[in-house]
């Protein structure tokens, strides 16, 4: 049901009503399933399983959302933020299939090794970030004309002094701007290297 919600949901009343009923039905099913597990496993033993904790959290979010809708508080900011956690519902499918649980448990178990690899990557990125700061710090600035919404070419304006001299030439709204991705400091260098590594 969550997959069918979009920005036009308020305009399509029929679909919205159907989704609201589907949300209630699934919430009641989840609650019933949790209660049956409490009876089958025992209340205390139920909470010894991490997957049961996940189910319990998802059911709690669904119950709070259901109560908020019934009381007319669904438009409150915190409730809207809480409703986004309903997107975790598909994770319940992981607890149904043994193969998927094995994969998830293997990924969780591999986190310490992955952290070691990440640490090595961060050290190498630190080296290149420091090199970038030394080579390219303050090299990406350009003179921008706010009036014409365009920048001056490097052969016309080569530095900050020349940029501000344009104010005397009837270019009253000029700014010495920097590009978003730069190497002015190590943190900005890390961000630039991340974008290079991810091609974004």
From TrEMBL:
Keyword Transport included in the entry's annotation:
yes
Q: Does the keyword Transport apply?
A: yes
Show the coiled coil region(s): none
Give the top-rank taxon of the lineage listed in the UniProt record for this protein. Eukaryota
Under the cellular component aspect of Gene Ontology, which terms does the record hold? voltage-gated sodium channel complex
The membrane spanning regions, by residue number, are: 25-44, 50-72, 117-137
MF annotations from Gene Ontology: voltage-gated sodium channel activity
Task: Give a GO biological-process term.
Answer: neuronal action potential
One Pfam family in the UniProt entry? Ion_trans
Assigned keywords, A-Z: Ion channel, Ion transport, Membrane, Transmembrane, Transmembrane helix, Transport
Look up and give the membrane topology term. Multi-pass membrane protein
Q: Which SUPFAM superfamilies match?
A: Voltage-gated potassium channels
Q: Which InterPro entries match?
A: Ion_trans_dom, VGCC_Ca_Na, Volt_channel_dom_sf
The Ion transport domain extends over 2-199
Where is this protein chiefly located? Answer: membrane
Q: Report the subcellular localization.
A: Membrane
Q: What name is this protein filed under?
A: Sodium channel alpha subunit
Q: Report the source organism.
A: Carassius auratus
């Amino acid at each position: 049901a969550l997959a069918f919600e979009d920005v036009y949901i308020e305009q399509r009343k029929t679909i919205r009503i159907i989704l609201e009923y589907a949300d209630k039905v699934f919430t009641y099913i989840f609650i019933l399933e949790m209660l049956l597990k409490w009876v089958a496993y025992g209340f205390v033993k139920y909470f010894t399983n991490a997957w049961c904790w996940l189910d319990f959290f998802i059911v709690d979010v669904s119950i709070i959302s259901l109560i908020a809708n019934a009381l007319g508080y669904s438009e409150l900011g915190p409730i809207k933020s809480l409703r986004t956690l309903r997107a975790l519902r598909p994770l319940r499918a992981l607890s149904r299939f043994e193969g998927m649980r094995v994969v998830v448990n293997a990924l969780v178990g591999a986190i310490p090794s992955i952290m070691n690899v990440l640490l090595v990557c961060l050290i190498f990125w630190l080296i290149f970030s420091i090199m970038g700061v030394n080579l390219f710090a303050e090299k990406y600035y350009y003179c921008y004309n706010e009036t014409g919404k365009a920048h001056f070419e490097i052969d016309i304006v080569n530095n900050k002094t020349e940029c501000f001299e344009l104010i005397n030439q009837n270019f009253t709204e000029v700014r010495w701007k920097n590009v978003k991705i730069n190497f002015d400091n190590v943190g900005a260098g890390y961000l630039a290297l991340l974008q290079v590594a991810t091609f974004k």
